[in-house]
Design a protein that fits this description.
- This protein has 435 residues and is an alpha/beta fold.
- It is built from 14 helices and 14 strands.
- The longest helix has 20 residues, at 292-311.
- The chain starts with a strand and ends with a strand.
Length: 435
């Protein structure tokens, strides 16, 4: 599926008269809020238009706006990653796409459209996953902007950019600008890896995830979601072995849907659909057409921060901007502080007090539901031995009996448990204490 296109964006390189007149009013002279490192004049304009390389992750509703805004602001070397193809339902809010584009990769179509409309801009699209790329790929950029609809993808790129930082190499620090919408609410934030709070630090601000006890989905399903979870968590590894579930593969989703529908029929449960199956296993943040105005505002906010960081022409956001449009329009800016126990940038182990009577299964449910952790399908191990592993199937089967055991039988008071998940490039250290 992964496809990379290098398109010559300099076919019409000439800039029209006064193209940058208004932008140059900012770059030609310092102002009262200018960063001390700002050097007005041709040097900063040359960097912005000829040297700065920027990565946009996501070419959906927010990504389309971001790409257009960046090109019109003066960024001329833009890369974009998106793993999706265009669906007809996207056309009411993703304005770079047309009916003839349905079925084509979003990244490629968006790149073609922006280069066609804004002469001299080079947009390099990649049709695939962010996980396909290695550290060297991300190190080539000056900054990264996210316009994603997935919490897991945000957590992955956040952890990746934090892990890239080498204290002895300032060039390894890549600022991350994250924008997102949900319904009539939205946010934009600036993350300076290892310096400011990262995405993981603010995980407790997200809505509480929906989880289901393993015993319920295995024995007494009552909801369509129980059947879908049974198909993905228990039946997939049993039937497909070591094959990794790809929640973006239509064949995999179709298989889960078929299995979940059969399970639902057996227990006389209604409501299992393809879209619900996809939503349960992907944990996708929903979007609606009415958020177009909010999307435009947040795209402008993200690109404004990119411009300020790239040019040092003004102080950048410190570090969180919220926009709420449910009743009127309300915005709020504040500094979200770093969390000492953040598994990505904090470095300290997190202490978890639990009852001595708690089982391993109860601890797993806590880790899934706890606002500042939210690890879906976690695997647990002590420094000496595995406690419960989700994968591979043989190890899951071998450690499954531990689910019913008390944690106190496996881990001493004050002992350490390391939590991992296949979807996240980091581990979380827990110190277990008993109450």
């Amino acid at each position: 599926m992964a496809t990379e296109m290098h398109v010559n964006g300099s076919a019409t390189p000439s800039d029209w008269q006064d193209r940058y007149y208004h932008v140059d009013q900012i770059l030609d002279r310092p102002g009262p809020r200018t960063d001390p490192s700002f050097l007005a004049g041709d040097e900063v304009k040359d960097f912005l238009r000829n040297k700065c390389k920027i990565l946009v992750i996501g070419a959906g509703g927010l990504g389309c706006e971001i790409l257009a805004d960046l090109a019109l602001t003066g960024f001329k070397d833009i890369h974009v990653i998106d793993m999706d193809t265009i669906d007809i339902s996207n056309l009411n809010r993703q304005f770079l796409f047309r009916p003839a584009d349905v079925g084509r990769p979003k990244a490629i179509v968006a790149a073609e459209y922006v280069m066609k409309r804004v002469p001299g801009v080079k947009v390099t699209p990649y049709y695939g996953k962010i996980q396909d790329k290695d550290d060297e790929y991300y190190l080539q950029f000056n900054l990264v902007i996210c316009g994603l609809d997935s919490v897991e993808a945000r957590r992955w790129i956040n952890a990746t950019l934090v892990n890239l930082v080498d204290p002895e190499n300032p060039e390894s620090l890549k600022p991350l600008i994250d924008g997102g919408t949900e319904g009539f609410k939205g946010q934009a934030r600036v993350i300076i890896p290892t310096v400011s709070s990262c995405y993981e630090c603010s995980l407790d601000m997200l809505n509480k995830p929906t989880t289901f006890p393993i015993c319920t989905i295995a024995n007494t399903p009552r909801l369509p979601e129980h059947c879908i979870e049974w198909a993905s968590v228990l039946e997939w590894p049993r039937a497909r072995g070591d094959e990794k579930l790809d929640t973006d593969d239509p064949e995999h989703i179709g298989w889960l849907y078929t299995i979940a529908a059969a399970r639902a029929k057996e227990f006389k449960i209604e409501g299992v659909t393809w879209s619900l199956t996809q939503g349960v296993v992907k944990n996708v943040i929903p979007a609606i057409a009415s958020t177009n105005a909010i999307i435009a505002v947040l795209a402008a906010a993200c690109c404004n921060e990119a411009f300020k960081i790239a040019t040092s022409s003004a102080a950048y956001l410190n570090n969180y901007f919220m926009l709420i449009g449910t009743e009127g329009v309300y915005s709020y800016t504040f500094e979200h502080e770093k969390r000492d126990h953040c598994p990505v940038c904090g470095g300290e182990a997190l202490e978890i007090p639990i009852s001595r009577e708690w089982t391993v299964e109860q601890l797993i449910e806590l880790l899934t539901e706890k606002q500042n952790i939210q690890i879906k399908r976690p695997s647990l191990a002590t420094p000496e031995k595995p406690v419960y592993f989700q994968q591979p199937p043989q190890l899951e089967e071998a450690t499954r009996p531990n689910l019913e055991k008390k944690v106190s039988e496996l881990v001493p008071d004050g002992g350490e448990i390391v939590v991992t998940a296949s979807s996240l490039p980091f581990s979380l250290s827990l110190i277990i204490t008993y109450t």
